[in-house]
Structure to design on (340 residues):
C-alpha cells in the first residue's frame, strides 16, 4: 500500500473497515469458514430484521400499537412504492423486495452507530461480497422468471429484433443486439452491487478519515471545523442509507418486472 | 515514473475527471425537476420520485470510478 502511514492515527481510525477474525476456523480446501466480525454483524442485522417482524406478527391486534403500525407502514410501502410496477404475475416478489430494502437499511443504520473498537464494528454493506451476493440473488430471480414466463427461446428472442426482416440483414444485426443485450444484462447485478458498496464505503471513509484527522492533529483549529463536518456527513450518510436501500430495491423490482413482461 | 506513483496519479486524476459527468448530469436532472414542479405543483410527488431515482443512477457512474480508484490504491 502507498506511504509509510503505519502508525498514523488516520489509519487507526479506519479500523471499522477491517474484517477481523473472531473465531478462527481452519481452511477447508480453498474456503475459509472463520467467523469474522463481518459475519457476526451480518447475522446481527438479519436477526434484528427477523425478530422485529416475527415479534410483531405473533400478536396482531385490531388497534395496532407502535411496533405493529411501523410494520404495517413498511409493508404498505413495500407493496405500494417498491413493487407498484410489477403487476399480477410479480406479486410473489413483494416480500423479497421488501426484505432486501429492510435488510440493507437496517445494516446500514446499525453500521452508522459509533461503536467502540472493542466490539470490532463493521458494516456488512461495505463489503462488496455482501452486496454482490444480494445482487446475484436478484439476477438469478430475473433470469429464472424470464425463462419461466417466455420459455428459453422466447426469452432470448425478446432480446433480438422483431421478426420480419430479411435474413441477410437480420443475422448480423441480431448477433450484435444479442451481445449488447447480454453485456447489459450481466452488467446489472454488477452495477447494483457497486452502487450500494460505493455509496456506503465512501460515506464511511470520509467520516472515519475526518475522525482520524481530528485524532492526528489534536489542535482546536482542526477539531472544530472537522467535528462540524462530521456531523453534517453523518446526517447525509443517514439520508444516503435510506436512498440507496430504496434505489437497490426499486431497481431490483424494475429488472424483475422487465424479465416477466419481456418484449412488452 | 515508477509504477506506484503512476497508480496513485491515475487514481487521483481519474476520480477527479470522472466526477464531471455525473455532476453535470445531476445538475440537469435537478433543473428539469424544478421546472416540472414549478409548472405543475400537483405532480411534485411523482417528479420527486423520478428525480431521486435518476440521481441514484447517475451517481453510480461516479462510484464506478471511485471503486476503480480504491482498487488501484489498495489492491496493487
Amino acid at each position: 500500500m502507498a506511504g509509510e502511514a503505519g502508525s498514523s492515527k488516520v489509519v487507526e481510525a479506519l479500523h471499522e473497515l477491517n474484517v477481523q477474525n473472531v473465531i478462527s476456523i481452519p481452511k477447508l480446501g480453498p474456503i475459509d469458514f472463520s467467523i469474522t466480525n463481518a459475519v457476526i454483524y451480518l447475522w446481527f442485522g438479519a436477526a434484528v430484521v427477523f425478530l422485529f417482524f416475527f415479534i410483531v406478527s405473533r400478536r396482531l391486534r385490531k388497534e395496532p400499537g407502535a411496533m405493529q403500525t411501523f410494520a404495517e407502514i413498511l409493508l404498505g410501502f413495500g407493496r405500494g412504492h417498491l413493487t407498484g410496477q410489477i403487476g399480477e404475475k410479480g406479486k410473489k416478489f413483494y416480500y423479497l423486495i421488501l426484505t432486501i430494502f429492510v435488510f440493507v437499511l437496517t445494516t446500514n443504520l446499525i453500521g452508522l452507530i459509533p461503536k467502540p473498537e472493542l466490539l470490532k464494528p463493521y458494516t456488512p454493506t461495505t463489503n462488496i461480497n455482501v452486496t454482490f451476493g444480494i445482487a446475484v440473488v436478484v439476477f438469478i430471480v430475473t433470469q429464472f422468471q424470464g425463462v419461466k414466463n417466455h420459455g428459453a427461446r422466447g426469452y432470448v428472442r425478446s432480446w433480438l429484433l422483431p421478426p420480419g426482416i430479411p435474413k441477410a440483414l437480420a443475422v448480423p444485426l441480431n448477433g450484435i443486439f444479442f451481445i449488447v443485450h447480454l453485456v447489459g444484462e450481466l452488467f446489472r447485478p454488477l452495477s447494483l452491487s457497486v452502487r450500494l458498496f460505493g455509496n456506503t464505503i465512501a460515506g464511511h471513509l470520509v467520516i472515519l478519515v475526518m475522525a482520524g484527522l481530528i485524532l492526528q492533529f489534536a489542535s482546536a483549529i482542526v477539531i472544530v471545523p472537522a467535528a462540524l463536518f462530521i456531523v453534517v456527513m453523518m446526517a447525509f450518510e443517514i439520508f444516503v442509507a435510506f436512498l440507496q436501500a430504496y434505489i437497490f430495491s426499486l431497481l431490483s423490482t424494475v429488472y424483475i418486472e422487465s424479465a416477466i413482461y419481456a418484449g412488452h | 515514473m515508477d509504477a506506484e506513483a503512476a497508480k496513485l496519479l491515475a487514481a487521483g486524476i481519474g476520480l477527479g475527471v470522472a466526477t464531471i459527468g455525473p455532476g453535470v448530469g445531476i445538475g440537469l436532472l435537478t433543473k428539469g425537476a424544478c421546472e416540472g414542479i414549478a409548472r405543475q405543483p400537483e405532480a411534485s410527488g411523482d417528479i420527486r420520485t423520478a428525480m431521486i431515482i435518476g440521481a441514484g443512477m447517475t451517481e453510480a457512474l461516479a462510484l464506478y470510478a471511485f471503486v476503480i480508484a480504491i482498487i488501484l490504491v489498495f489492491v496493487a
